[in-house]
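Lab notes, practical 5.
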Amino acid sequence: MNFWDFLGSRHQQLLADAFQHASAVFQCMVVATLLGVLIGVVTYRSEWAGNLATLSTSTILTIPALAMIGLLIPIVGLGVPPTVTALTLYGLLPIVRNAIVGLRGVDPALVDAAKGIGMSRPARLLRVELPLAWPPILTGIRVSTQMLMGIAAIAAYASGPGLGNEIFRGIASLGSKNALNQVLAGTLGIIVLALLFDAAYVLLGRLTIPRGIRV
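Output from the prediction step:
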């Protein structure tokens, strides 16, 4: 059976795996974004706190994905819980780092002007600082998403959802007639999803970042 025949015969399963893969990455990115921006907001004013936040999240990223999921299985079990936990932790570093850099890069004169017209600190953060820091934060989100697309495939090791199941089934049955097709289908599916997500982020940036800031 050639690759195109394989896709035709397994397209429903592949589409289901692709949807689960995209859904897992999207949901984990939402959580990672909220946590990462919150950590950035809390730590960016202090040099040591910002460095500690960056060091802590970068340390998490040095743990091999297979080892991370293996360590989580005895704690949270198999399936979705270790997948969500691992992906969320791995997604933090680029968002935290870019949130800190973006917030520190806001022109102090603009913050002082907002303070001068009576804005409270939360109002300055929400209406001045975070909007101006949004471009680097969005870049961090894009980088995290691309990383998680690949890492999510490892979740199949813990019976997690996604296209990694096709890859693992293909590797486990090497030598069979469809082994290579399974690995190729899973890999190409992840690449296509990564490109679609990145295109969505480009569109989001065009819709949410004023042209003057983009320039």
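Observations recorded by the TA: DSSP finds ten helices and no strands in the chain. Residues 115 and 121 are 8 Å apart (CA to CA).
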